[in-house]
Design goal:
Elements lengths: L3 H7 L23 E7 L9 E7 H7 L20 H11 L2 E7 L2 H18 L5 E8 L2 E8 L1
Antiparallel strand pairs: 1-2, 3-5, 4-5
Length: about 150
Amino acid sequence: MSDLNEVGERDGWRCWLCDQPVDPDASVNSDLGPSTDSYAASKAKKGAKTIERLAHRQCNTMKGKVSPVVAWSPELFVVDPSPIFEAVERLERKGGREIVARCPGQREADEASEWLLDRLSRLAPGVRFEVEIKSGGGQFMLALKSA
């Protein structure tokens, strides 16, 4: 089991589920207090390495009751965004690449790409992803690849 402070520092004290800040000084018994959960990349079949992820205690508890939803930032201009959690699970299992969103311009695509890679660093620590931006038909597609 990892040290809570090490996990918190690595994840920038942000919850992998809701992407909101986690107070490192809050009680671990508080709903918004820090907690960790174990994550094993499904791609690593040969002795899967378990990595801890930071979450609010309440978010961690809720994921046991309801499938996690990792929402796109409302500040991004993306069209037809794919469900992030499911796309990550498919790419870990099968590899390859998957179109995850469309953007109207290069700037919006760059912003969405940067945000997505940061978000995935907490969602699937230890798994390397790349985002390809492809232009076509007056729009820019974001293709997520497991590297």
